[in-house]
Amino acid sequence: MDEQTVKRIQSDPNYVKLVAERKSFGWTLSIITLVIYYGYIALVAFAPGVIATPVAGAITVGIVVGAAIIVASIVLTGIYVVRANAHYDELTKAIVNASAAGGK
Questions:
Q1: Which residues sit opposite 54 in a β-bridge?
Q2: In-domain check, residue 4
Q3: Mind giving me the DSSP string for 34-53?
């Protein structure tokens, strides 16, 4: 790809919007994930009695919360995929079409 095409794509409003939205949304989901994971570690470190509390038989709060963290990660990934398929793909298609048309 030549330098002129790269500059044209980088100046495309759809490209600018795509980069900004993906970055913002990606950081938001990353921060949520980090809060969940580090929150669990903080719970283990500062309230081990809570984690060890039995819920049913040998199942403890720690096991339930750990499973919930895994489910939350899957849900967050699903949210990103849905948004990417619904919105980011449209922007990418518009960028590709504009580039193919020579930026017109």
A1: 60
A2: no
A3: HHHHHHHHHHHHH-HHHHT-
User: In the chain, how many domains are there?
Assistant: 1
Residues 101, 15: contact at Cβ < 8 Å? no
Summarised one tens digit per residue, pLDDT across range 23-49 is 999 999 999 999 999 999 999 999 999
Residue 70 and residue 63 in contact, taking contact as beta carbons nearer than 8 Å? no
Q: Where are the alpha helices (DSSP H) in the chain?
A: 3-11, 13-46, 48-51, 61-83, 89-100
CA–CA separation, 42 and 82 (whole Å): 31
For the ranges 16-20, 62-66, 99-103, the lowest mean pLDDT is seen at 99-103
pLDDT for res 90:
87
pTM of the shown model: 0.78
Which range of residues forms the domain containing residue 26? 21-100
